[in-house]
Amino acid sequence: MSKTPVSELLDAELPRFTYGADYNPEQWDPETWLEDARLMQQAGVNLVAVNIFGWAQLEPLPGEYDFRRLDQVVEILHEHGIGINLGTGTSSPPPWLTAEHPDALPMTADGTRRAFGGRQAYCPSSPVFREHSLALVEQVAARYGRHPAVKLWHVSNELGCHNAHCYCPVSASAFRAWLEQRYGTLDALNEAWGTAFWSQRYAAWEHIQTPMLTLSTGNPAQAVDYLRFSSDEILDQYRAEAAVLRRHSAAPVTTNFMVTAHIRALDYWGWAAEMDVIANDHYLDHRLAQPTAELSFAADVTRGLAGGEPWMLMEQATSAVNWQPHNIAKTPGEMLRNTLTHVARGADGISFFQWRASVQGSERFHSAMLPHAGTDSAVWQSVVELGRTLERLREVAGTRVVADVALVFGWEPWWITDLDSHPTTELRYLEQVHRAYNALRASGVTVDIVAPGAELDGYRMVVVAALHSVTDEQAATVSDFVAAGGHAVITFFSGITDGVDRVRTGGYPGAFRELLGVLTEEFFPLHPGETVALDDGATATIWTERLHARGAEVVASYLDGPLPGTPAVTRNAFGAGAAWYLATNLDEVSLARTLARAAADAGVALDPALAGSELEVVVRQGSGRSYLFVINHGDTDALHPATGTELIEGGDIAGTLVVPAGAVRVVRLSAQAPARPTAESTPDAIRESDREEVRELR
Fold it and tell me: Phi and psi dihedrals of 345, rounded to 5?
């Protein structure tokens, strides 16, 4: 399905960034609605999401609809020139639905029902929920489907955030139907699940249940199929709502993904084709060691889901959230840096949760564009300034990020790699992907995130991190890419099992053994906290393996640990390209050094100005122009080579760009300026007068 350009949602003739928030007018009186509309204009807001949680207001009792208040809100916004991203209102059922149909409530893996009172309190397989939710969507779509203010449709909200996995009898029945469609016969299912183990062979479909809690570890193949089913089941709800909307309206349809480090329930590679616009919610997560790096990763994943096209940030926070153990407020300039990092990596739409901070409910201490303190506040001033900044950057909208390196990532590999009964619990899939991503980012390498098995034409290098389970076809994509002249870096615990998570025999790393020119006999995980030394000065943790080079060049070997003298890093010439294998968990600096070496070997342009700095540099290109984003996450002013016109503060840049501490600068590069630094434009070549300018700024 072709995507609707985000920058053209409001006006195809005048592309621009969308800017706005979730707006929950049901929490406020009509006088406040008018004030909100005026303040939205002042802030530069041009698109707001409404009716996200409106079901109980629109249908207070079964079949009794009341649209009077929503009608007023729609007209007020329209009269003030503010576009609407209209929600279907189905994200949480009203009290009457589960009171009258308690079987529609979700059941957890221990067999208990969850009560009404939070959000998403429904079983995704419930026919009662499906029937009533689609009846509501029909009413909303018929009423507003042709209204000129409706620029975008918002199906539900953060689908599967809380209720992705239901284990009730209704879900079990739906799971069996899904399995029968997938496998066709019980023999095929038993073969795929390996049910010869532990007397688990099934003789009748009705004997199969959801993988509820067991006394011992369960069947891993069953667990993964259940996760696939759960993702598909929620996607079916989206499809059903979208079909109703499309009968009544020509406006594009989407929902907000949750590409983030703490939510993994949905396989968005299987969802992306269903969206007219790719949209994501992202909140800075202070539970992570590198929150801003994870923000960049999530933005790149979202761009990957959009096929490289611009996308929409549907939610972020102006400051603190309400749901982390420590809800840290953003420091001056941090909201702008966060936002423009998303823009640098392809976002053409910027929105927040929410417009006006709530005074009741569980999210009353979640930050908003209009905080409790009102317009006489630093948050409000930063919101207004962001609106002005996005207008100054208007010409960037519609351009694309260009990358030479692909990083493989998927939700199915995340599920599979983190299952029980693996060689060590210290190995976590997303952590390994993040480590590879952060190492490339530290060298100034922009990456595209691609699904396992995605085409790799046009890239110089692909990185495959801890891709434990791969099909023959997915593995062949990497091998063919290298044979044709590409370069690959593959890390430990990759290629071990096939498409049904069955171990590949004959030696690890299984599917990649020939490509890498190595053979591993046995894994030797390390104790928690144990470190081994390598002969190139690196150290490593978590993992070693008894590896033999079978044609590969040994780049580094262990000096100590359980396998002294054994290869730890190898490089293998394969066809016209080369494949590196990292058989251990290298320390952060050594991983960055090794990936930079592999990238240089592949002909990838590195940015020497970034080594050891806190600068983040990304280039967007389009219509014959290149735009250099330089984001300074540090507390000292910085220099970066650039020639062109700076768009945020204005002014011409002739060779050296000064980026104040905590600031962002965006340069429209001159036609003759390289999009990436050359050897002559490194910091050593920057004039001393420019350095003196920075010292004076400090």
Answer: -100, 20
Give the integer Cα–Cα distance in Å for 452 and 457: 14
Please write the tens of the pLDDT for every residue from 680-689: 444 443 444 4
Say yes or no to pLDDT of 90 above 80: yes
Residue 690 pLDDT grade (very low, low, confident, very high; cuts 50, 70, 90): very low
Report CA-CA distances (Å) from 38 to 31, 52, 355, 692: 11, 22, 13, 45
For residue 379, the one-letter residue type is V
pLDDT at 676: 61
Tokens at 140, concatenated: 């909303």
Mean pLDDT, all residues of the chain: 94
- pLDDT score, position 688: 43
The residue-averaged pLDDT of 223-233 equals: 98
DSSP, collapsed to helix, strand or coil, labels residue 504 as coil
The residue among 231, 251, 229, 232 whose CA lies nearest residue 88 is 251
CB 390 within 8 A of CB 44: yes
191 catalytically annotated: no
- Peptide bond before residue 102 is cis, with ω within 30 degrees of 0: no
Full strand arrangement of the beta sheet holding 638-646: 400-401, 615-622, 625-632, 664-669, 638-646, 652-659
Taking only Cα atoms into account, the Rg of the chain, rounded to an integer number of angstroms, comes to 26
281 bridge partner residues: 315
pTM of the model: 0.95
- Lowest-confidence segment of 172-181, 374-383, 392-401, 608-617 by average pLDDT: 608-617
Residue 460 near residue 487, CB atoms below 8 Å: yes
Do 351 and 23 meet the contact criterion of CB atoms below 8 Å apart? no
- Which residue of the set 315, 412, 616, 646 is catalytic? 315
Integer angstrom CA distances of residue 442 from 204, 234, 591, 617: 54, 37, 11, 10
Report how far residue 520's alpha carbon sits from residue 495's, in angstroms, rounded to the nearest whole number.
12
The residues, any chain, with a CB within 8 Å of residue 101's CB and separated by 6 or more, are: 126, 128
For residue 580, pLDDT beyond 80: yes
Residue 616 forms beta bridges with which residues?
A: 631
Active-site annotation holder among 8, 59, 158, 646: 158
d(CA 92, CA 94): 7
Report all structural domains of the chain as residue ranges with CATH numbers, in order of start.
405-601 (3.40.50.880), 613-697 (2.60.40.1180)
DSSP annotation of 526 reads P
Beta bridge partners of 240: none
Active site residue 315: yes
Return the structure tokens found at 330.
């953003």
